Structure formats: C-alpha cells, structure tokens
Amino acid sequence: MDYLSFLVCLLLAWLAIHLLLSTTKASGSVPKQLPPGPPPLPIVGNLLSLGTKPHVSMAEFTKTYGPIMILRLGQLPTVVISSASMAKEAVQRHDLSFSDRTITDAFRAFDHHLNSIVWLPPAAQWRNLRKICNSHVFSNSRLECSQNLRRNKVKDLISYIRKSSEAGTAVDIGQAAFTTTLNLLSSTFFSMDLGDPSSEIAREFRHLVRGLLEEGGKPNLSNYFPMLRWLDPQGIRRRTGVHFKKMIDLFNTIIDQRMQGRKPTNSMQDNDVLDALLGINQEKTADIDPSKIPHLLLDLFTAGTDTTSSTLEWAMAELLHNPEKLKKAQAEIEQIVGRTKPVEESDIPRLPYLQAVIKETFRLHPAVPFNFRRSDSDVNLCGFTVPKNAQVLMNFWAIGRDPEFWDNPNLFKPERFLGSEIDVKGRDFELIPFGAGRRICPGLPLAIRMLHLMLGSLIHEFNWKLEEGISPATMDMEEKFGFTLEKSQRLRAIPVPP
Ligand code: HEM
Asked: Which among 28, 125, 440, 449 counts the fewest CB atoms within 10 Å?
C-alpha cells in the first residue's frame, strides 16, 4: 500500500469512527419529533441531492416533506424553513434561540469570525457592533448627510454609460452596478472612490472583494465535516486568509491616513462614517477597539456590494425581459420627477411603481437565497423539534415563490405590490429578502436608497435595448447559486438616448 492510499484509508477510518461516535452521542439526545426529510445516504447524508441550485432543490423537497424539513449535510443537521408562517413562528417566538449562525469555515480565516458582526454570537460584542451600525453608519441622519456623495457617484455612472450610448456599445450591467455600489459604499463610509477603475488601490480592492465572495460561496467540505476543518482540504480558508489580510492592511492604511488628519481631497463631508467610528474612541460614547474597525468595514463591504449590485442587475434584466413594465416605470418617473431633472433619493417615496419593481425583484431573486442561523438549544417549532446546534435555514427564495400565497408566483408582476402594504422590512414574512428579527440586515436603509437611486437613474436617463440577436423573450434568465444568487449569464444591454 503506497503512502497516499494509506492516508486515504486512515482518513476514511477516522471519518467512520467520528460518524459512529456522533450518531451514538446524538441518539441519546435526539428528540423524537424531528421534522420530516429525505432519507440521508451514509456519510454524505443529503449533500448529493442538493445539486447546483440548493435553494431550488430544497423548494422541491417541500412538496413531499412540507414547510419544515431536516436534511443531513454531511455531518451537519440542517433544518429548512420554507413558508412565511413557519418563518414568522421561528422569528416571533424563538428569535433568540435562532440568533446565532453556523460559521462558514472560510470566515474563520484571520480569526475574522471572532471580530465580525456577521458571525459573532448574539452577545455583548455583537450587540455593541449593531448599536454602532444603527447609530453611526446607517442612521437616517447619517444617510441624509451623505446623499450628496451618492448623487455624485450616480452621476459618474451615468457619464460612463453615456460614453457607451454614444459609441452604441453594450454595458455589462452587473459590472457597472458593482463598481458603482463599491463607490457608493466607500464614499458613504470614508469619502473615497474605491471603485474608480483608474486607481491602483481601487483595482486591488475590487479584486479582493470579488475573491472573498468567490471563496466564501464555494461548497466547502470543512463546513459539512467539521473534523476535516484542520485540514482545510480545498485550501479555501487559506486563500480567504490571504484576501482578509490584504483587505485589513488596506483599511488600516486608510485609517492611519485619517488619524494623521489626511482626508481625501475630494471629500465633501466634514464628518463621515470613518470619522464617526474613530471619534467613538475619543468620545467614549460607545466602545469599539480601533483594531476591530477594519473587521467591521470588511463585513460591510463584503455583505453590501454583491447583494446590492446583483439585485440591480436582476431588476434591469426583468425590465428588459418585460419591456411594457420598463415603459411603465419610465413613464412614472417622467411624470413625477420631470424629463430633465435627475432622480434623487428624496423622490423615492413618490415613485410607487419603481418601489414595486424593486420589491418584485426581491421576491423572485432574493440576493441571499437563505440566511444561515443555528439553534442554541432544542426548540419546539410548530410541534417539531429543531435540535440543538442544527443549522437553520430560511429559504427566502421558496417563500417568495410559494403558490399558497403568491398568485402566478413565477411571473414578474410589480403591480401585485401596488396598493399593498407588504414591505421588505422584516414584518411581512412573505417577503423577507433582508431577513427578520434581531439579526435582520443592518444595511437595509442604505441598500434601499442605493437600489432605487441607481435603477431610477438608469431607466430615466436612457432607453435600453438588448444586443443583436437577443430578444426579450429569448434572453437568459437563469440563476447561479453562490454567496449571492447571481445571474448565470451577465446582463449586457445597449443604452440609447431617450
Ligand atoms: C440588496 C441588498 C442586500 C440584501 C438583500 C441583504 C440581505 C441580508 C440578509 C438576508 C442578511 C441575513 C439576515 C438574517 O440572518 O436574518 C444580511 C445580513 C447582513 N447584511 Fe445585508 N443585505 C443587503 C445589503 C447590505 C448592505 C448594503 C450592507 C452594508 C453596507 C449589509 C450588511 C449586512 C450585515 C453586516 C449583515 C450581518 C448582520 C448580523 O449578523 O447581525 N447588507 N443581509
């Protein structure tokens, strides 16, 4: 037997022993009324039946097993919730028990999970970061103050698209949206253009964010077989660590420059988010160790960029796929804002059809198809026991397309939201793209502003057509599962002067 075969045998034996031990241990404590679920295979459990689109496979399983089911993903018991009423029960009655997350191994790199608002358990350190976000990053007054910066970044986007319009060339909508979102976030947080394609630091930054999202979104054996974690068999944690280090170094450089009193020359704000975060330490109004600020910024950028830009890409894709809806949205803006004036964030409340387009996009294409939570104890949910330490997923994608609630669920029909009270703020469980409960997305107020502003501006400033040979009916609308639910084929469209 060669050395490699010996190692493989050793690994398999070890795996079998661990599995046996965990089953024996579990059999003493597993409560009787587990939710139903498809029968698992030995060792891999249900992993192989999830395919490349787990959100869709899980939605399919609900037809057999109902709105709460249990899957075995390798060694990780996973409870999947797929209906609005079950999600409501989970959040309203058991929010605290389900408020921790199962940590994705990639994010253990650089000990990020020990400092991260996304991965910390719901205890003092996490509460403090949430408080800082709510009052110093995403408060209404802070976002009002930084409106001007976002307006300027959207102007840059429009100028960039105008060049394509003059040349008659197609724009990669997802790419343009990603760069603009990066700029909107970096100007809101530290009055800087991190998406500027001509800047070296910006190019590096974009490459890092993309790299992180790619690594984080890869299926990782370490997540399903925790005893393999030390091996990091696919090298995902190691590569993520390299990205983390570079990003944290970059944020530290920006922080050092700011501490020395150097602000970007084009800064339009006296007091941006970074000033506020650094000021927190001087004023001692809240407690954030300066070494944790880069971790917070890292989370905000990774959680905020792809989610926002891919939602914008889907919204544009749906409007080009349904040209009569595009005309309707354009007509509304023209009537309310006026032909010659640009769309402003302050116009959003007066644009109900535009709001309905964004809601309908969230319903069909939630950027995050499900949230990752963990049960901190055995919890009785509607008569079923969710076992302690199980991963708990709410399948937002399945909830948004539940035929029990939505009429013609696969149809893009923004009109369904006109005159309806349903909102995305975590109160209406039929539509919860930002999650719900104490762990709801803190970036929601900024994301909503950015999305309406970008989409409104793109369709107000230009008419759009598809490339030669592609028609609304034949355009590709397939999804690709990953860290976010992206379009499988990038949307390319040609801007035409109105
Ligand atoms: C279309 C845009 C966005 C969508 C659909 C979205 C969705 C989500 C979802 C589903 C969660 C998990 C919530 C839960 O567990 O119940 C989340 C968490 C989070 N999001 Fe967003 N998000 C978006 C934009 C943003 C932006 C712009 C930022 C910041 C700049 C951001 C920062 C965060 C953070 C820090 C968390 C973790 C919160 C915690 O664990 O306490 N998100 N987001």
From this structure: 28
- Say how far apart CA 243 and CA 208 lie, in whole Å: 6
Residue indicated by tokens 């800047």: 199
Q: What is the pLDDT of residue 207?
A: 82
The pLDDT tens digits of the residues spanning 278-299 come to: 886 565 555 688 889 999 999 9
* Residue 9 annotated in ligand binding: no
Give pLDDT tens digits for 115-135. 999 999 999 999 999 999 999
Cα–Cα–Cα angle for 367, 372, 373, rounded to 5 degrees? 145
In the predicted structure, residue 2 carries a pLDDT above the cut 70: no
Q: What is the distance in A from the centroid of ligand 1 to the CA of 132?
A: 15
CA angle 408/413/414 to nearest 5° reads 140
Mean pLDDT over the full length of the chain? 90
With the most atoms of ligand 1 within 8 angstroms of its CB, the residue from 137, 441, 483, 484 to mutate is: 441
**Which residue of 81, 434, 438, 451 sits with most ligand 1 atoms within 8 Å of its CB, as the best mutation to test the pocket?**
434
- Tell me how far apart the alpha carbons of residues 176 and 455 are, in angstroms, rounded to a whole number: 12
The pLDDT value recorded for residue 290 is 84
Q: What is the pTM of this model?
A: 0.93
Place of tokens 């409560």: 31
Residue 193 pLDDT greater than 90, yes or no: no
**Domains, in order of start, for the chain:** 31-496 (1.10.630.10)
Count Cβ neighbours within 10 Å for each residue of 63-94 and write b for 16 or more, e otherwise. eebbbbbbbbbbbbbbbbbbbbbbbbbbbeeb
The answer to whether residue 3 scores a pLDDT higher than 90 is: no
Q: What is the pLDDT of residue 25?
A: 46
The predicted pLDDT at position 23 comes to: 45
